[in-house]
Amino acid sequence: MKSMRLLALLCPALLAAAGPIDIGSRRQLFVDRYLIENAKGVELRLATPVDAGPALVLDKPWEGAFSGYFTVIQDGAQYRLYYRGEPHAGKDGNPGEVTCYAESRDGVHWTKPELRLHEVSGTKNNNVVLANNPPFSHNFSPMLDARPGVAASERYKALAGVHQSGLYAFASPDGIHWRKLAGEPVLTSKAFAFDSQNVTFWSETERRYVCYFRTWKRIGATNYRWVSRTTSTDYLHWDAPVEMNYGDAPPEHLYTNQTGPYFRARDFYVGISARFLPGRQVITAEQAAAISVDPGYFKDCSDAVLITSRGGDRYDRTFMEAFLRPGLGIENWVSRSNYPALNLVQTGPSEMSFFVVRNYGQPSIYLRRYKLRLDGFASAHAPYAGGELVTKPLRFAGGQLELNYSTSAPGGIRVEIQDASGTPIPGFTLAESKEIVGDEIARVVAWNSGADLKRLSGQPVRLRFVMRDADIYGLRFQD
Fold first, then answer.
1. pTM for this model (two decimals)
2. Which of 45, 100, 263, 463 is 20 to 30 Å from 67 at the Cα level?
3. pLDDT tens for residues 217-257?
4. pLDDT, tens digit, 9 for 90 and up, residues 323-360
């Protein structure tokens, strides 16, 4: 039994092949084919984020055109935002880089507090939390430590550094006052770049700290920007890194991975990653001059893609299409623009937000917010003509099935519960299912006999969804 639990944590795909997928009461999202046995007329559809407008202008003397590597954290009612301030292009880890901080009470409206911690540009009236400490402000990317029993003085942690220095560990009680956890780097290697965000978090399912960082991988004649990961039990001693596997997806340059646990399903890791296309020049030198972009930063372009993982060394690239396109305006088609911030945060009862840096290398640089419905990275989508989806055998815990869904006015969803062999279970057949119509984040599924599923809890079952002009974003079983 212990070995099966370990297999479930480290390689859920293998466990699924060995028997029913044990989902317990954990929320499941339709962002990959993990749960899907077969589908007819139903496809996985990538969401389109909603533009919510500018979130933060980077106009202070210590911020500027090369501000980057943003991290957003929600800590209870407090939202915190960290980023590199850098007015001029320069060597990674140069003394001019600082770590800036902004805060919000709703994740929408942001302020830059005058912290008076460091003198920068002749004043202490600034929002700088780390300065005069190269090379750590180049890519300082904090996390809120979710490990049970973590010391109050170490609620926030970060790894920072560049190739030459290696990565050092930092800690803070409040996310503002930082100290090194050790006098030596905790992760070093001549083979690793370490030059973009080295993102970390406590994994509740793997029961370890996890770090994802950028490396290089040679495939044919191309040296690709790749992602590797390592784990630790104490944040100071890290295992030998392993390269991430993208399955059969074609190789692409992923400059930042921005991988982290989704806040409504923490065993599921999601990243809105920067996809970089070196040498793919879209705008002319004359257009570049017109928008005052740095001359070294308009001969490439980038967008954002969705990558997901359920732990271990595997990413799912279910969607190769852009999650966020550069969009209208030549200012968005410059090098290293459109890089997403690390993490999503909830910004309304049914809404979550992520942030993207725009106009990189230009005086007009700023951070922009985009919205999604909760769980709404992608969906199982049926057209007007209808379709159906059947899951692999599942084992759940709970007494009710809850859906996050949307339909058109004539659309609808019916749910049938089958045994593991695919035979409809009396009381939960399609004919007895009450049609679901509407648009809700949490709707309990019911049949003629009611919604109580306690007698099926713990048994292997399949779910059959018969849908018309409808989307299902996620599901969970609950008490």
1. 0.94
2. 263
3. 999 999 999 999 999 999 999 999 999 999 999 999 999 99
4. 999 999 999 999 999 999 999 999 999 999 999 999 99
Q: Which two tokens stand for residue 141?
A: 């990317």
> What is the per-residue pLDDT for 2?
40
CA–CA separation, 284 and 298 (whole Å): 8
Q: List CB contacts of 445: < 8 A, sequence separation 6 or more.
A: 400, 401, 402, 403, 415, 433, 434, 436, 451
- CA distance linking residue 100 with residue 110, whole number of Å: 13
d(CA 72, CA 79): 7
The Cα–Cα gap between 199 and 159 comes to: 8
Low-confidence ranges of the chain (pLDDT < 70): 1-18
Give dist(CA 137, CA 128) in Å, integer.
10
- Distance CA(273)–CA(245), nearest Å, equals 15
Could you identify the residue written with the tokens 């969803």?
413
The three-state DSSP-derived secondary structure of the chain is: CHHHHHHHHHCHHHHHHHCCEEEECCCEECCCCCCEEEEECCEEEECCCEEEEEEEECCCCCCCCCCEEEEEEEECCEEEEEEEECCCCCCCCCCCCEEEEEEECCCCCCECCCCCCCCECCECCCCEEECCCCCHHHCCEEEECCCCCCCHHHCEEEEECCCCCCEEEEEECCCCCCEECCCCCCECCCCCCCCCCCEEEEECCCCEEEEEEEEEEEECCEEEEEEEEEEECCCCCECCCEECECCCCCCCEEEECCEEEECCEEEEEEEEEEEEECCCCCCCHHHHHHCCCCCCCCCCEEEEEEEEECCCCECECCCCCCCECCCCCHHHCCCCCCCECECCEEEECCEEEEEEEECCCCCCCEEEEEEEECCCCEEEEECCCCEEEEECCEEECCCEEEEEEEEEEEEEEEEEEEECCCCECCCCCHHHECCECCEEEEEECCECCECCCHHHCCCEEEEEEEEEEEEEEEEEEEC
Do 67 and 90 contact (CB within 8 A), yes or no? no
C-alpha distances (whole Å) from 293 to each of 162, 243, 289, 326 are 25, 35, 6, 16
- CB neighbours of residue 90 within 10 Å: 13
Long-range CB contacts (within 8 A, 24+) of 179-184: 181/154, 181/157, 181/235, 181/236, 182/236
Q: What residue type is 416 in one-letter code?
A: E
Residue appearing with tokens 């999601």: 270
CA atoms within 13 A on the CB side of 59: 5
pLDDT at 479: 86
The predicted pLDDT at position 189 comes to 84
Q: So what's the pLDDT on residue 18? A: 61
Which residue type sits at 155? R
Q: Which among 363, 357, 268 has a CA at the least distance from the CA of 306?
A: 268
